[in-house]
Write a structure and sequence with these properties.
With 285 residues, this protein is an alpha/beta fold. Helices cover 24% and strands 28% of the residues. It contains seven helices and 15 strands.
Length: 285
């Protein structure tokens, strides 16, 4: 197990779960639990304990990607880990794929994609706001220690972007994703996946219609709810608060035209939505 070094990021965690992301340096750090000297962490190992000036015990860990995302500088709402993990899994990200991301925001999705790509393939991130692109670039550089060679950031409106190559995956994190679908469809290879995240169902409906008329099939929409539980020796119960609705995730696949007719979606088709039953001959999965 490697020891902590100067300038390395460390996650201080109290016994009650309070966390602080700090950098090992010749400097003091204080909280309501007391003070420590950050330089004392150098030479210690992950999982070790540090005692504060008030006698509180802090565990030392290297930060996970989730820890980093919640602590990084941001001007925009980040995508929650529960949604990020589903977007990465359902889009089947793999090392070597070529990805187009629209709306980089603070860089949370970019970080998750780059981690899953393992340094191979290419991620092209398009952001309309220059200040957001600057923040995201710095957050990504800070996490990896340098700017990933397989990442390109383009400051432009996505409706005016035209790539010289087809991509394997497209991610839309935009206020009006349906406006980008027509332009995006020509950039995505056949069988490629498009993933969109929208906060309200009206956006989902508009996006769904555009996907149907622009060469996409097997369209599904879903949301994820997370409820944590409190467990001790005497009882187990859910916490009073939970991370409920944060957004709707849409996943669709690029397909060839079928006699010029709109393509039906998957388990979320209109009949299923209205009746709660699978269509005749269909199977509810």
């Amino acid at each position: 197990m490697s020891k902590f070094q100067l300038s390395e990021w460390v996650l201080l965690t109290s016994q009650k779960g309070k966390k602080w992301l700090v950098q090992v340096a010749d400097a003091p750090f204080s909280s309501h639990l007391g003070g420590i000297h950050l330089g004392d962490i150098a030479g210690m190992e992950e999982g070790d304990w540090l005692i504060t000036s008030k006698g509180a015990k802090l565990m030392l860990f290297r930060p996970t990607l989730q820890d980093y995302i919640f602590s990084m500088k941001r001007r925009t709402q980040i995508i929650y880990p529960k949604d990020l993990s589903a977007m990465i899994f359902y889009s089947d990200i793999y090392p070597g794929c070529v990805i187009l991301e629209t709306g980089i925001g603070s860089g949370a999705l970019s970080l998750a994609l780059l981690r899953a790509m393992c340094g191979r393939g290419k991620l092209i991130s398009v952001e309309k706001r220059a200040e957001f692109a600057v923040d995201a670039r710095e957050n990504i550089r800070r996490f990896f220690g340098a700017e990933p060679e397989n990442h390109e950031i383009i400051v432009a409106d996505i409706e005016g972007v035209c790539l010289s190559c087809e991509v394997d995956r497209i991610f839309l994190d935009l206020p009006e994703p349906w406006r980008a679908v027509s332009n995006m469809s020509g950039m995505l290879r056949m069988g490629g996946l498009l993933v969109s995240l929208s906060p309200n169902v009206g956006q989902v409906q508009l996006t769904h219609r555009q996907l149907q008329t622009n060469g996409f099939g097997d369209i599904v929409h879903f949301e994820l709810l997370r409820r944590d539980w409190k467990v001790d020796q005497l009882r187990a119960r859910p916490f009073d608060r939970m991370v409920a609705h944060t957004g709707f995730i849409t996943v669709a696949k690029r397909v060839s035209a079928l006699r010029g007719e709109p393509l039906e979606s998957g388990p979320g088709n209109e009949e299923f939505i209205q009746t709660g039953k699978a269509s005749e001959g269909g199977e509810l999965i």
